[in-house]
Structures
1.
Amino acid sequence: MDRNIGGTIDSANGGGSIQTTASGISDSCSPETGVQNPAHAHHAQDASRYSNSIQMTHDAAQSPGVGLFFRKSQTSHFTTVVGRLPDFVTIGLITLEQAEHYFSTFFDGCHHYVPVFDPGHDTLQSVRQRSSLLFAAICTVGCRVVCGTDSHQWRLLNFHLKRMLGSVMSCPASSSLETVQALLVRACYSAERSLLVASAARLAINLGLPDAYDELIAHMAGGNVFSDGASLLRRARTWLHLLVLSHILHVDAGDMLTFKFSGDPRRARIILDSSDATVLDRFLFAQVELNVLRANIFASLSKRVYEDEEDILSVVRDAKIDIDLWHGDWERILQQTANVPAWILVNLRVQKCWATTMALCRAVRTAGVENVDFMSPAQRSILSMAKASLRLHLQTIMAEPRCYLHNLKYAMDFVWAKCAFCYLLLLKLCVLLPEEDGGGGDNNLNDDLIACGAVLSRELGDAAGGAGMTGISNSTAKMYLQLLQTGTEKFARALQGRHEHEQTGERVGSDEALTVDDGFRKPADELDSFVPDQFVFEWDFPGLTLFSSSTTGIGWLDDILLGALNGDGDFYGLVAPAGEMGDVDG
C-alpha cells in the first residue's frame, strides 16, 4: 500500500509540483519505506493517549480567564492606514497657473523619455482627477526643467513627492496604472532608478499589465473588434516602457535582469495598426526591439570565455548586422508614417551608434586586456570600429539644427551620461589609437575634436538653462558638463605634448623612452587615468579604463615583458646558462 510521506504530488501536473505538509510525517511509519510498523504504531498510540491526558489535565488546571487570554484573536492589533494623497495645488504648494506651466513643459519633451502617455487622454484635468501621485510626479519633473534642481520650488515639490511615493509603496494594494506610471516618471530623473523600476515591475505584475499586452496582441492578430482597445493599449504601453527601462539598467548599469521578452519582439508591431496607436508608440516599440537585442548581445558576450578570437569576431559581426537591420527597418517605417517629428529619426541614428559602440567595447572587455599595447590585431580592430562609431555619434548630434542637443534639457539622466561618455571615450581612443586615423590628417581631426568639445560644452550649457557653469541650475547637467570640459582640457594638453615631441624628433615608446621629457607623458597619463566614478559605480559603460603603457611612461617594462613572453633568455638582465636551458651543445 502506497503512502504519502511529507507531501502530496499533483498527478495532474505529471508530478511537477509538490506541496509540503509537515503533518503528514508520523512516527508510526518506517522512515525507509513508509509502510506502517505494528510495533511503532502501538507505541505511537500510547504516546498519543499520554499526550492527550496531559493536555486535558493542563486545561482543567487553568482558570477560565487564563484560557480566554491565550485564544487566537480573530482580529490583528495592527491595521494598514491608507491615507488620501495630497494634491499639490489644493494644499498650496503651487498655484494652478504654475501647475499648468510645469505640466505643459513636461509634455513639451520629457514625455519622449517616458512614452507611456496618450496626449488625448492624459490631460491636466484628467490626470489630476485620476491620480494625485502621477500629477505630482509630472509637475515635479516639469519644475525641474523650468526652475532647475537648485531652486527652492523644485526641492519643495521633490520632498513632498518622495513622501507620497513612500506612502504608496507601503500600501501596494491601493496601487493603479497611474501609480506605475508615476514610478516610471520618477525613475527616469532620479538616482534611485533601479529600486523604482523594480517596485514598478512588482506593481505592474500584480495589476496584470503583462496580460493586457498579451490580450491586445491576441485581439489584433485575430482581427477582433473590441471596445476596450484604448485601455488595453495604455496598460500595454506602460508595461513595454517598463521592460525597456529594466533592460537598459541591466545592460548599462549592471542590474540583474528579472524578466525578459519571450519570442520575437517584432510581433508587437501589429499593435501599431490600432487606431489608438500614436506616433510616439512607434518610437517606444523601436526601443523595445533595440533593448531586447542589446540584452541578447550582452548575454552572448557574457557567457563566453575569450579563447577563440574568431568566435568573438563572429559575435561582433552578427551584432553589427542585427543593429543595422533594426535601424534600417525602423527608419523605413517612420519615413512612411505621416507627421513624424524630426527628433525621432535623429534619436534612432544616435541609438544605433550607442548600441554598436557598447557591443564592440564589451567584446574587447571580454578579452580581459585593457592595455592596448598588449592587444591582438583583432582586438585593436574592434576598438577601431568603436572609434568610428563614436565619430559618427558625434557628427550626428552636432549636425544642424542640433535638435538632439537642444532637447537635452528634457532628457533623463541616462541620456546626459551617454552624451558625455561617448565624447570622452572618443578622445581616449584618439590618443590610444592615433595611427588609425592615418597620416597628417590626424592632427586636423584632433583639432576638430577640440573645437567640437567647445561647441558641445556650449550647447549642453544652453540646454541646461545656464549662461556659463555658474548659471546652470540642473545638478545632473552640471556634473556631466564638468566631466566633458575636464576631458577636453586633458586631451588638448596631451595633443600639445605629443606635437612638441614630434617637432623635436623624439618618438615616445622607443629605447630612449626612459629619458624622454614629461611634456607628453604626463598629460597623456592624466587622460589615461581619467575614469570618472559616474561611469564605474553609477553606470557600467565599458571603455574608459583602457590605457597604453607607451603613453604612461612604462613602455620600457612592456619591452622586457614582451621579450620574456617571446622566449628571450635575457630577463631583467639575467642570462641563463646554456646548460640550464637544456642546450647540451652550448
2.
Amino acid sequence: MSSRETHDMKLPPIQSTAGAVPVRNEKGELSMEKVKVKRYVSGKRPDYAPMESSDEEEEDFQFDVEERLARHRQIAEPEVVAESSEDSDEGTWHPEREEKYTDSEDEAEPRLKPVFIRKKDRVTVAEREAEELRQKELEVEAKKQVEERRRYTLKIVEEEAKKEFEENRRTLAALEGLDTDGENEEEEYEGWKVRELKRIKRDREAREVMEKEKAEIERFHNLTEEERRAELRNSGKQVTNKASKGKYKFLQKYYHRGAFFMDEEEHVYKRDFSAPTLEDHFNKTILPKVMQVKNFGRSGRTKYTHLVDQDTTSFDSAWAQESAQNSKFFKQKAAGVRDVFDRPTVKKRKT
C-alpha cells in the first residue's frame, strides 16, 4: 500500500449533503432534511462569519492553514524507490508538483473582488511616468513665465521712471533758459493797456450793432402792411458778397459756393465760381451726339442732354387714353386743363 493510500484512509470521509442534512426524529431514526444553501462568493464575508475575530481564533485559523499545507506537501512527496531514481529526479522539473503547491498557496491567501476598469481609465506605468514628466515640464514652464513677467514689469517700471526723470529735467532746463533780465515792465504794461482798450471798443461796437438791429426789427413790426411793401420796394434787398454771374459752357459742371458765412463781406466769396475747370475747358459740342451726355460710359450717366428737344410723354399710360371717364375727369376735376381763370374762393363745408 502506498503512502497516498495510507493518508487517504486516515482522513475523514467527505460528507456532501448538497442542500440536505441528517436529522434524528423522535423515534431515533435518521432522515435527510433540505436546507437553504447560500453560494460562496470569493472575497465576500459569509453572513455567519463574525465581523471581528479574537486573537485565539486567528491563531487557530493560522494553525489550520499550516496543517492543511503540510498535509498537501506530505501527499505531494514522491515515493522513494531507489537512490538512482532520487538522483535522476533532482535534475528534472515536475509541473504536477508545482501546480499542487501553487494551488495550496493560493487557497491560503485572501482573494480580492475583481473590479472592471474602462479602457480610457486604465493608466499604465509608462503613461503615469509620462504624465509626471509632463507635469514637471508644465511647472518649469510656469515658473519661467512668472520670471519673464516679473522682468518685463521691472523693465516697464524702469522705463517709466527714466521718462519721468527726463521730462522733469527738460522742464527745469526750460525754466532756467527763460531770460527775464532784459524785460521792461513799463512797455509790457503799456501794451496790455492798448489790447484791453481795443477789446472794450470791439465789445461796445458789437453791442451797439445788436441794439440797432433790435430797434429796426421793432420799427418794422409796428408798420402796416402797405408801409412794409412800400419800404421793401424802395429799399430793395441787400445782398452780401454778391458775385458776378458768369456764363457756363456746354455740359459744364456746376459748383455752388455755399450758403454759410455769407453775412459779412469777404473778397474770397466774390470770386467767379462759374469758371471752367479740368475737362470743362474742352469744347464738348464737337463730340458725337451719343457722347454729348454727362458721365458718358459710367453707371451714373444721364439719359438726355436736354429735355427741351425730348418728348417724354408716355402714350401707353392710362392718363393718355381717350375715354369717356378721362374726358369727364379732365373737364370737371383736373387742375390746369380747364379754361377757368377766376380766383379760387373758400367753399363752405356742408354740415
3.
Amino acid sequence: MNLTRVTLPTLPEFFEKYRKGEYRFLEDVDLRTLLYNVTFNCTEMFSSCTFKSHHEDCCKMFIPTFTEYGICFVFNSQHHVHKILDIEYPEVAIQKIQETDPDWAVRFVVRNIETPFWIYITSSDELASTDVQPHHIWDFRVEEVMFSVKETYTTPDTAQLSIKQRRCAFDDDIKLVGYTDYSYTLCTRQCRMNNALRHCNCLPYFFPPHNKQCDIHGLICIAEKLEEIQNLDHCHCYLGCSNTVYEVEKLDALGTGRDEIWKSTLTCKFVSWPMVKYKREVLFGWVDLLVSFGGIAGLFLGFSLLSGVEIVYYFTIRAFFMLLMEKDELRRIKKEESMKPVPAYDLSLTPYFISKPLPGYGIDQVLKNYKKSEEMGKQMVLGRRRLKPPSDVVIPPFGIDFIH
C-alpha cells in the first residue's frame, strides 16, 4: 500500500502489511514529515487554474491540508495549514460568488491522469472527513460537475431553546479544540481525536498536532481500536445552525474526439442562480405563550400583569412592612375589635313576613326548647315504654356560650 493513501479507515490494512515486514523502516521516522516529502506538491499536481474566468496561481488557490483521508488540496477553506516544513502559506481570504460574476466556476488542469481524484464540495468551515462520501470520484471521463446549494440559517431567537429542542448548535454552544467555528464534521473529528487519546494516548499524524503524535506502535493501537475510535454514540454532535449542503445535480461527460488536455481538465460550477435558502425559527415561544395566557386572563377575568404584581405586593412586601413599622396601630385596632359588643343574631327560622322577630332574636325560644328537652331526657322510664322528646325541639347550635 502506498503511504500517501493511508487513511483512518485503511489503517488496519496498512498494518497487516507492516506485520509482514514491508514497512519496518518506519519505526524511527516522523510519519507526518515523511508524508509531506513523498506527496506531490501543487506544481506537480496542477498545470493551470481558473476561478471566475480569471487565471490564478494554483499554489495560492490549492493548499495541501491534512485530513482523515491524508493530504488533500483545499480551495477557499478556513482550515488550511499555515506552514508545511519550511513553506509558509499566507492567510486565505474567503472568496465569494456574486450573481454578476462572468462565471460561477472553478476550473483546473492536472498533470497526472492515472489515479482518480476524490472531489469534495463543502462550505468554507467544513473539511473532508470519514463521515462524508466524496461528491464525485473523477476518473477523467467527466469534464463538468454542476452542483446546487441549499443553505439553512437559524434566527437568534432560537437560542432560548436547548440544543436538543432546536436540533442544531451555534458556534458558542459546543467549543472545539483548535477551531473557532462549529460544524458537524469538525465535531465528529474532535470526537474521534478524543477517542484516540483515551484508547491509545496519541493522535495519528493526519490529525492536528495539538497532542502527542503517534509513532508506528501508537498507530498499531489505533488500528486495533479503530471500531471504538470511530464510534460516535457518545459524541453529541449536531448540525450547525448555519449549515450549507452541496448536491451534485449534473455531470457532463467528456465529448468524443477530445484531445488529452480535455481529459485532464475539470470544471466545478453552480448549476443555477439563485440558491435555495431555508430558515429555522421559533414560531411560538415562551413569550408568545405568556402573552396569550395574559390576553385570555384579561378578557375573562379582568386580570393584568400589573394587578398580579399588586396582589403579590399586597400580601408580601406591604404586609411585612406593616408588621414592622405599624405595630402600635395594629395593637390599637386589635384592642378596639375586642371591646366591641357581640352583635345579636336572629336564630329563629321563621321568615319575617310571617312573624315579627321574637324577643332576643329567637335566642330565648331556642334556650327554652333546649331546657325542656333536657328535662324530658331525665324522666324515669315507666314500664317498657320510654318517653320520647318531641320531634320539633330545636337544638341550639354548637358553640353558643349563652347556654351556660
